[in-house]
From TrEMBL:
Organism: Treponema pedis
NCBIfam families: rplA_bact (TIGR01169)
CDD domains associated with the record: Ribosomal_L1 (cd00403)
Protein name per UniProt: Large ribosomal subunit protein uL1
GO biological process, one term: regulation of translation
GO cellular component, one term: large ribosomal subunit
SUBUNIT field: Part of the 50S ribosomal subunit.
UniProt GO MF annotations: rRNA binding; structural constituent of ribosome; tRNA binding
Length: 226
């Protein structure tokens, strides 16, 4: 991959082979940013996973950095009021299933009660490819609508290892204080460690790096449980 002049200038400002403590790594990412917009900071955690092993879960980051998300709840009519009072932007059954079938996607997250999944499952071609399909593994298929919406409003995010065993997750904006970004990264590290498969090797976490949207990556000398 070819990089432009700004990227190369940023790389020249630090030792790209060195591992920095978390706070210093975050400070470097902030210093190395060069885009005119408020770049997102992303964490990259490389895991040593065996054949058939995967890591996937959700967590609420300590410090939020994204705007209010619109939540759509697929539920029966008798639970619509509950969903709306809990903070859902939309709630209902067949009318919203038909709207989504027609291409309507004016929401960020979809939640469904278990009894609705038979019908919601038919929206796989629309919701699945956009990562919006409710899933019990991520807490978006649940009977406790209020609790799910509350966590989503707080900023609950999903993380999962890709085929190469790497977890990628946005953890802040470069405009945020260093300590808040660092605490978000640490929370992700702790949660990834908590999800370590029982038969995974001791060197389960192979490496950790962070970067901004346009900037170079910075290696992190990570610690668990802080």
């Amino acid at each position: 991959m070819k990089h432009g002049k700004n990227y190369k200038n940023a790389v020249a400002k630090y030792d790209s082979a060195k591992h920095y403590d978390l706070s210093k790594a975050v400070e470097l990412v902030k210093e190395l940013k060069y885009a005119k917009f408020d770049e997102t900071v992303e964490a990259h955690i490389s895991l040593k996973l065996g054949k058939g092993q995967t890591v996937r879960d959700t967590l609420v980051l300590p410090h939020q950095f994204r705007g209010e998300k619109k939540v759509l709840v697929f539920c029966t009519d008798d639970r619509v009021k509950e969903a709306l009072e809990a903070g859902a932007a939309y709630a209902g059954s067949s009318e919203y299933i038909e709207k989504v079938k027609g291409g309507w996607l004016d929401f960020d997250i979809a939640v469904a009660t278990p009894d609705m999944m038979k019908d919601v499952g038919r929206l796989g071609m629309v919701l699945g490819r956009r990562g919006l399909m409710p899933n019990p593994k991520t807490g978006t298929v649940t009977t406790d609508i209020s609790a799910a919406i509350n966590e989503l409003k707080k900023g609950r995010v999903e993380f999962r290892a890709d085929k190469g065993g790497v977890v990628h997750l946005p953890v802040g904006k470069v405009s945020m204080p260093t300590e808040k970004i660092a605490e978000n990264v640490q929370a992700l590290l702790n949660e990834a460690m908590r999800k370590k498969p029982s038969d995974a090797k001791n060197d389960y976490i192979k490496s950790v790096s962070i970067s901004s949207t346009m900037g170079p990556g910075v290696w992190v000398d990570y610690k668990i449980g802080e």
